[in-house]
Amino acid sequence: MKILIINTSDSFGGAARATYRLHRSLLREEINSEMLVQQKLGDDYTVSIYQKSFFQKLIGKLRPLIDVLPLKVYKRRSATLFSPSWFGFSNIVDKINSFEPDIVHLHWICGGMIRIEDLRRIKAPIVWTLHDNWAFTGGCHIMWDCERFKQGCGACPRLGSDKVNDLSSAVFKRKEKIFSQLPEMTIVALSKWMENNIKSSPLLGKHRVVNIGNPIDTSIFKPMKKMDARVLWNFPQNKKLLLFGAISATSDINKGYSLLLEALNTIEDCEIEFIVFGSSEPKEKVWSGIKTHYLGHLSDDISLASLYSAVDIMIIPSLQEAFGQTATESMACGTPVVAFAHTGILDIVEHKKTGYLAKSYDTQDLAFGIKWILNESNYDQLANEGRKKIVDLYDSSLLSRKYSELYRSLLTSNVNKE
Question: Residues near 321 by Cβ (< 8 Å), separated by ≥ 6?
């Protein structure tokens, strides 16, 4: 059984990390897995980049910029990501088919990597893990409370549009045409929230949908002695440390940094220090109530695991999470999580059992949750319950076997049809 995993990058971004972890876990289970990307940052020989010639590599770098050109007419669009996925002239599908895979497993394929119309040219059965809302919307990746995807989009709030026949409507219609020609494509939802949205979607609601979360290697993400971890990071031993982080943690509005600052501004505790990863220290300080350490981008799992072990709480104030990968990472390391009680995070964090779930967007309740965990006498129990849940439900060996079963069922189904 030969699996070809497709993702825009091998390591940049949460989806890329999750995809690469799945790829490596499949290999550990002795499943023949290869990965094909548009942007390769690592040196793993099992990961290939599809551009070969100088011209292809040049176009590859320009593709993300070219793909978003239709957005230029929408002057009132929000800062969230929107992908038309219209730009052609790519050899990506020819490259995919040249691997002669038994299963093509798509993940995050935007950034100009694959044109919607190219999906129907893939010869092997398709499995598609959705890391955000893009596949079932008219182009937005983060829909927040908008449900226009249930009616075909148009008048898109992400575009700042009031026209029914706008770009989101056009992209939706393109998807509608192509996805109807791929009735046997299997969709993987990372959470129950994503599964419910997919099933209510006119684009993908009739497809087979399975719920499998992102895998995590719990032999790497595991607790280490807190004081030892703090020595590694040169953190103070006698402080309460709060952690927040993501790719572009302070600039991505979906990650909720501004809401977190509101919550922290209500906490008066000189024993607290704040740690941010995924962003460097900003030029202009927007807040200075608590001493803050900015760690920048972390590129390896071992550094992340030691960081989670060094702190007392991981805070996830995101406006939306398809899954909640930093929650599984933190809990696997025995560090409780405080987050808003919505979207994909509900599958991972259990209120007052593995962390604290605050009322959605309620910064006072978020602050209360932080103080509750810091002062909870059963802190060790929270940590142990969190670790146990991740090992039981999201360990990479378990989820790679679930994917293996899914792949084999699709291949068996194809053989029976023949």
Answer: 191, 327, 339, 343, 344, 345
Spatial distance between the Cα atoms of 6 and 20, rounded to a whole number of angstroms = 10
pLDDT tens-digit readout, 354-372: 999 999 999 999 999 999 9
CA–CA distance, 120 with 128 (Å, rounded to integer): 13
- Count the neighbouring beta carbons within 10 Å of the beta carbon of residue 157: 18
Q: For residue 55, is pLDDT > 70?
A: no
pLDDT score recorded for residue 282: 79
What's the whole-model pTM score?
Answer: 0.95
Contact 128, 210 (CB under 8 A): no
Find out whether 334 and 309 touch, Cβ atoms under 8 Å. yes
Taking a C-beta distance cutoff of 8 angstroms, is the pair 218, 391 a contact?
yes
Instruction: Quote the domain boundaries for residue 410.
Output: 2-215+396-417
Read off the pLDDT of residues 346-358 as tens digits, 9 standing for 90 and up. Answer: 999 999 999 999 9
CA distances to 49, 76, 110, 191 from 154, in Å: 35, 15, 20, 26
One domain for residues 378 and 409: no
User: How many CB atoms sit inside 10 A of residue 231's CB?
Assistant: 12
* Residue 188 reports pLDDT greater than 80: yes
Beta bridge partners of 3: 33, 103
Phi, psi of 79 (to 5 degrees): -80, 0
Residues 334, 193 share a domain: no
| Amino acid in position 160 | G
- Quick: pLDDT tens for 236-279: 999 999 999 998 999 999 999 999 999 999 998 879 999 999 99
CA distance 203 to 191: 18
CATH of the domain at 337: 3.40.50.2000
C-alpha separations of 355 from 9, 78, 136, 336 in Å:
32, 32, 31, 5
Give yes or no: residues 27 and 101 share one domain: yes
